[in-house]
Amino acid sequence: MLPVCSETVQPASVVRDLGVLLDAQLTMKQHINKVTAGCYYQLRRLRQIRRRVGTEVTTQLVLALVTSRLDYCNSVLAALLQSTIEPLLRVQNSAAPLIFNLGKREHVSPCLIQLYWLPIRYRITYKLCTLMHNVHIGKSPRYLADIVQPTSSRVTRSGLRSLSKTDSYTTPRLRTKFGEWAFSFSGPASWNYTLLHTIFDTSVFKNKLKTYLFRMAFNIQ
Questions:
Q1: What is the chain's alpha carbon radius of gyration, rounded to the nearest angstrom?
Q2: Is-contact 187 147, C-beta < 8 A?
Q3: What residues contact residue 193 under an 8 Å CB cut-off, 6+ apart?
Q4: Residue 181 φ/ψ region, left for φ over 0, alpha for ψ in the -120 to 50 degree band, beta for the rest
Q5: What is the pLDDT of residues 199-211, one digit of tens each?
Q6: How is residue 150 annotated by DSSP?
Q7: pTM of the prediction?
Q8: How many degrees, rounded to 5, is the angle at CA 38 between CA 209 and CA 102?
Q9: pLDDT per position as a tens digit, 93-104
Q10: CB of 91 within 8 A of CB of 39?
Q11: Where are the domains of the chain?
Q12: Which of 141, 118, 133 is nearest to 202 (CA)?
């Protein structure tokens, strides 16, 4: 409880911020359950019209009504356990076969490859890297740029600024695993791993980033 003047503000177990549900422990399970329920509702509606509209229209409807929900603010899901984001992956694995009108026992990976869809974990990494790219080229909001620190600005023990890896960003030291959820850690960690730091054209960066993550996700050489 928080006393404010003559009133007392009661704590809430879940709050909504920009459409994201934040629970008291920040497990994000409430948010994931909400997104999952909304996606399955849309998939059930799409199954009723799948045979009438065809593959192309179904693809566009899935992208608009399902995939967009999976991608919305998905950077807040960084560093969550695979078991926590598994419901989102099951949604994606239900949406892909629907587009091709396949049975439940068909393998999903060929569908994802043909659709050129990144799995959920890699979609989160894609979003983080895109945000970091905007920071790197100076097109991000100031509050994001202030959160991360370039490696080149770090002062070493000798008192000299580091001159190596000038395109990378530092990941702060953490006392708990919980700190990996913060953008100050997850953003630089994802960015440093991609090695696409010299690309300043945003459209080119996004294309190469998706190709890089796609090959990694499906072990494509």
A1: 20
A2: yes
A3: none
A4: alpha
A5: 999 999 999 999 9
A6: B
A7: 0.88
A8: 70
A9: 999 999 999 877
A10: yes
A11: 12-117, 123-217
A12: 133
